[in-house]
Structures are given as structure tokens and as C-alpha cells.
């Protein structure tokens, strides 16, 4: 019986890899147009770093292990914390820093549509730019990357965590219990109001204030929160959110795809203010396809200087699921060349032709199976090649190669240099 791949992982065959690579390259192009440079970090980090500000739920999902020297390590579950560690280790890097990444991460959670235990994230981190201008740039990068990847139907739900933290303080949630309360609110869309009410009820003594809080949460718009006797951080959060929305509207023209949403708090504890998630019509079935926010304390927490920082990440598997649901994955047309030797002892002649094509920057494969020309052409057609180059005795004697266009099913005879010119223009 053959081995099976581990649960929560996937194999990607060539056609799927080509599809993914096309999406990634469009995203990468957007990142670089905004001035972000690629960084690569180790797959594993010291466990203490990963757990520093992850949150209880995520800590439970880390793949943790001890190496042969007994060091406690873990596979990274996202890229923001490792990049904060890089910045802390290299404090002399000129600011602001614009980093991007396209790398796999790992979380031990229940596999579902668009969510695996090994998955890829494409994201950016902007370090050294405080407040709404920095947040707006990162949101704009995210929106443009999603659009150029082909996604058209999505909304960015944005909030400031200080608003919700202030409301929790107002209803009597103890400071040490706030992360637990935020995780409950984060599940409002998936689990419903009754679940959130029950979870918060375990942490709140004043039931009347809890019901007022639930009413505010269910209205969803943080800009409608009546400030009244609420803590100052609520007002600070509302002001920052208003400034961000204005920046996105007037500077980037993004008002139509951005909406305030009080229930967006994100599940990681390192966020300090602005947070956001990108949702599609697939909703809870798929979850958010991207998200991020501001984390002004993280670089200092991991040993670096105090630095304002903000970032976002796109979940590639979820994005591709959403693109597939929209019918937005661009089909790959016929491509490539197969060189077919016809007759005994002509394989090396076919190899020489293929090598000449490769040396000119063109992709070519050689048909090694010894079968009839018609069978070889039929096989090349099924595999999606655009051209078949036939190498037989007649072609060698005349110096003219027979080229079959497998899309138009047309044939012509060309010198090698003419063939190369044809293929370069295809």
C-alpha cells in the first residue's frame, strides 16, 4: 500500500503549479511596484519568539519540537514575527523598511476548504511609518494585489482594536481576560451572537452593559459607537479609523471596497490598533482571503527598538479558491514544442534540434516513445503542446523541418532559424 501525504497538506502537479505561479507573479509585481523588496526567513524559529505575542489559540497550533541539542523550536505560523526579529537583529537598517514575502507557513488546525496545515502567504510589512498613512499604503497594496490576481468581488472590513478593547474595559472585563474576549468576538460571524454572548458572559459581571455591548457589536459600524462615558481609547480608535478611511478614499480612491466593521479584531495578540480582513461572497465557508493590521509594539517586544509597524498577508490557497469560484483563473493556452523523431536512429538528430531551440531560450521536449507519427502527434495534442517539430530522413536531407501547428492543425516546412523566429513570435 503506498504512503499517503500527511493530513492538511497538498501535492501540486505541474498544471496547478503553473496556475499558482501565475497568481504569485502578478502579486509579486504589485509588491515591487510599491517599492517592497523580498525577504526570506527560516522555516523554524525559537519557540519563545513565536509564542511571544501570538495568542493562546495560535500557540496551540504551532508545530513545536526539540532539536538534537534540546533547543525548543517551532515552524513559523506566519511571517510578521520572524520579520520583526530580523528588524530587531539589524537595527541599523535605514527606515522605513518595505519588505515582502511569498513563503509557506504551518498551523495545526482542522483542515477545511481553503485552509490547510501547510499553506502559503504573500504579504508585506511596512516598518517605520506611523499612523493612517502607513496603514493606508498597506491596504492599498493588498487591494491592488488582489485585483491584479483577478479577484473582483471582495470587501475590506476595517476596525481599530482599541474601540473593542475600550468597550470590553467598560463592561468590566479584566485586562488579562481581554485577549480571550477578543477571540470570542472574532468568532461572531462564524459562531453567531449567542455564542459570543455566552463567552463574554463568563468574563463580564454587568449583564445590562453586556447587552448594550452586544447591541453595539451587532450594529457592526464602529463609527456609530456613542462615546459618552466610554474610555478614551475608544475615541482614539474611532478617530484613527476615520483618518484611515479618509486617506483610503481621498488618496487611493478605495472608498467603494472598504467598510468599517466592529467585529473584526483578528486572532493574533500583537495587533495594537488598526486591523482588517478581506471577505468574499463565499463568507464563512472560505473565511477571509487576506488580512492584517498595525503592530507598533512587536519589534520592541522581540528585542529591537520601538518602531511603528503595519503589514498584511494574503492566503494563497484561499485566494485561488475564491478566484476559482469567480471563474477568474486565467486558462493556460497551448504552449511549448515537442520534437518528434520519425524513423530509426534519428533520436540524436531530434535532441540536437531541441537543444538548438533551448539554446535560443525556447522550451522543447523530445518524444522518446517509439511509435507512429500519428500516435506521437495525437499524444502531443492531448498534452497541450502548441507545435510539433518532425525530424525524419526527408527533413535531414533537405535541411527543412516539418512544423505542425497543433492548435490550427496546419503544417509548414522551415529552416531551423526560421523555426526559432516563428516560435519566438508565438
Textual characterization of the structure:
This protein has 426 residues and is α+β, with helices and mostly antiparallel strands. The chain has two domains: 14-326, BirA Bifunctional Protein, domain 2; 337-425, 3-Layer(aba) Sandwich (Rossmann fold). Helices cover 42% and strands 19% of the residues. It has 17 helices and 16 strands. The strands form three sheets. The protein has an eight-stranded mixed sheet. A five-stranded mixed sheet has the order 13-12-14-15-16, sandwiched between helices. Strand 12 (337-341), helix 14 and strand 13 (364-366) form a beta-alpha-beta unit. The longest helix is centred in the middle third of the chain and has 21 residues, at 232-252. The relative contact order is 0.12.
Please state the average pLDDT score. Answer: 92
DSSP summary: helix tally: 17
The unreliable regions are none
Question: Could you give me the name of the CATH homologous superfamily of the largest domain?
Answer: Bira Bifunctional Protein, Domain 2
Physical arrangement of strands within the biggest beta sheet:
1-5-6-11-10-9-7-8
Please state the overall shape, judged from the principal axes of the Cα atoms.
Answer: elongated
**Number of beta-strand segments:** 16
SSE class:
alpha+beta
CATH class of the largest domain: Alpha Beta
Strand fraction: 15-25%
In total, how many domains does the architecture comprise? 2
Task: Compose a concise summary of this entry.
The protein has 426 residues and is of the alpha+beta class. It has 17 helices and 16 strands. Helix 1 runs antiparallel to helix 5, helix 5 crosses helix 11 and helix 9 runs antiparallel to helix 10.
